[in-house]
Amino acid sequence: MGYTTIGSKFAGIEAHTRYFVPLDENLEIWQLTVSNRRAKPARISVFASVEFCLWDAQDDATNFQRNYNIGEVEVVDGVIYHKTEYRERRNHFAFFACSEPKAGFDTARDAFLGPYRGWDNPATVAAGQLTNSIAHGWAPIGAHQVNLDLAAGETRQIVFVLGYQENPVDRKFDPPDSQTINKKTVKPVIAKYLDAKEADAAFDRLRAHWDKLLGIFQVDTPDAHTNRMVNIWNAYQCMATFNMSRSASSFESGIGRGLGFRDSNQDLLGFVHMVPARARERILDLASTQLESGGAYHQYQPLTKRGNNDIGSGFNDDPHWLILGVAAYLKETGDWSILDELAPYDNKPGTEEPLYEHLHRSFRYTLERLGPHGLPLIGRADWNDCLNLNCFSSTPGNSFQTTTNRDGKVAESVFIAGLFVHASRELAAIAGRHGHSGDATCFLTAADRMEQTIKTHGWDGEWFLRAYDSFGEKIGSKEREEGKIFIESNGFCVLAGIGLDDGRAAKALAAVREHLATKHGLVLHQPAYTRYYLHLGEISSYPPGYKENAGVFCHVNPWVMIGETRLGHGDEAYDYYLRINPSAREEISEVHRCEPYVYAQMIAGKDAPTFGEAKNSWLTGTAAWNYCAIAQWILGVRPTYDGLEIAPVIPTGWPGFTATRIFRGVAYKIAIERKGAGNRVALTVDGAPIEGNIVPPPADGRKEVSISAVLS
Ligand code: GLC
Ligand code: GLC
Fold it and tell me: If 0-12 CB within 10 Å is exposed, 13-18 middle and 19+ buried, where does residue 559 land?
């Protein structure tokens, strides 16, 4: 389902449509408001149409020899019911209803569109009359026609309801021995929402729901783009990525992909404050797909909640993202009970262990898979799905992610090493607070050792190396002709705090600025790969400047922003933030060519002929990471295990900002005022100065706290 054509032919007639999905209903409501702005009466026709899919996205797109023979509909009391396969094993159907008396309908696509015409220009709409066609096979659709006589100045509202309904298996048909859909279950729902007042009330409930969600963090900064993205759109996109991960969308139209393990854990970072209970459930679902080895299925199918065997495991960064997802949940909620929840491995009954043990296995997974330099083996790929160092594929159509032609005992990832350091320190913080101080020491020792290994074997002199390939050669090194410097290891190592003490972090980010910064954002590496390298895999399959081959892969830009804040560089962090902020890019829409309120996965890099053009919007890890970068690190309003930390690293030119953050049920009203050019924070909480910059939830149960912070 999902295509609409609503036309109005006459000048002086205004039409507006509001579409929404009410809370807790399998419905989409369209409210069309039509006004006659002329001085005389008008008769107009309104057409609304949808195309029904036949319930199996994959099969619908391929198996025409069967599918063009099975389509069935019913049209009863003006409601169009789509019931393909209802006669056999399905007990669900779709319906499309309209609040007004109908002047016509169509359910057969051919009849509606006419020969050689598309959805942009259906023959019936051009002729002004639908044909009351009934689909028998071919492509079932739903189209309604309403004729309205509007007095001068009159406004009318029409409601369309598009929905999905499941019937109990033993009550599918009415009468029971017929082939007619039992509509008793759905009629009250249809009647309810066709009533304009009920539709308005459903919309108001939805609006109140979003006001509440977005109200959890609201800011008023000197910059309209920041306000617009933080207060509304970035948070909204975080909800979309949480719900859909990278699965079915306009940019991935199949159904095979499911939810990514690393993706979903990262998506939590920007979502957990909105509906923590759903984050909790997601964490336990993800943990239940973890393998006993501590590794993870790279993806799982959201409906069955089972790991996806087609892609399998062996992406060696995956397990650590679970630690970061859980850490974010604990910091937001303080709900330590989640660590004691039992979750199985690979969904196998009998293997259940507390979530804490899962995290422990994530940690061990890496230590059991170290390479020749003591760095983590990369496996099939790390965060960069396309750096496939064990693949060596020369066969077209091979999956770079699942084809493995090397034993994988040599290629190592400096990125995973940085991730390991970061995740292990989080895990130590968790273990210490959860009564496992012995474990905490062990996690910290391993993190320190890995940090040393990075400094010894993961440093190229001016920046962090990216990896060692399966011949033990450096990737992301000045020794290479192409791919000399990469963003992931530099961004993440600095985010993890590596090299803050010895100047490496500052050097690395200076090198990033010199080599990777462009006016459209930070590119993934430089120089781009100009040809296919068998030993590097998919990264070199893309033309230079696109996707993982030196595109501006937006997801990783915030790691550098966060890294800059760790260095105290508010101007640099914010500069990078604005370069990819969709709202700030609206002015260059003819270059950007993407929605000006949604992060895209990628903006073409400087090596691309279409430099600056964005692609693959909506479902990208950029949403969550940018939200964290701006909210928690630049604006510096950051949940911690022990309270809300206030540590802004904002541009030197900002006089300050205000914010409201609902944290563990308490509303923190925050006012930041800049009195000097630095990032030192002096906090006053409810009028009294406090030590440090973490504000614990009030011991006396107050529900509102007022914080003023002076930056100097
Ligand atoms: C896509 C994948 C993500 C991966 C990234 C870089 O966004 O969903 O898992 O990290 O590409 O390859
Ligand atoms: C990521 C990458 C993409 C690659 C895919 C494989 O999404 O962005 O380039 O093809 O992973 O699943």
Answer: buried
Task: Give the C-alpha distances (Å, rounded to integers) separating 449 from 112, 296, 443.
Answer: 69, 24, 10
Query: In this structure, what DSSP letter does residue 539 have?
Result: G
User: If you measure from the C-alpha of residue 242 to the centroid of ligand 1, how many angstroms do you get, rounded to a whole number?
Assistant: 15
Q: What 3-state DSSP class applies to 125?
A: helix
Please give the helix or strand (H or E) that residue 219 lies within, else none. Answer: strand 217-220
Smallest CA separation from ligand 1 atom 6, residue = 384
- Residues sharing a CB contact under 8 Å with residue 160, sequence separation 6 or more, in sequence order: 29, 30, 32, 48, 96, 97, 98, 99, 144
Distance 385 CA to ligand 2 centre (A): 6
Q: Residue 653, Cβ neighbours under 10 Å: how many?
A: 11
- Active site positions, annotated: 385
Give the pair of three-digit tokens for residue 485. 């410097």
Helices of type H across 458-538: 487-495, 504-516
Closest atom, ligand 2, to C-alpha of 400: 6
Q: What is the pLDDT of residues 414-459, one digit of tens each?
A: 999 999 999 999 999 999 999 999 999 999 999 999 999 999 999 9
Structure token digits, residue 572: 């640099």
**Residue pointed to by tokens 């560089």:** 569
Report the residue among 488, 538, 553 best suited for mutation to probe ligand 2: largest number of ligand atoms under 8 A from its CB. 538
C-beta of residue 372 within 8 angstroms of C-beta of residue 411: no
Count of alpha carbons within 13 angstroms of residue 327, beta-carbon side: 20
Spacing, Cα 362 to ligand 2 middle (Å): 23
Mean pLDDT (whole number) for 110-120: 96
**Proportion of the chain above pLDDT 70, given as a percent:** 99
Alpha helices in 101-195 (DSSP H): 109-113, 123-127, 187-194
Within 6 A (CB) of ligand 2 lie 385-386, 401, 547-548
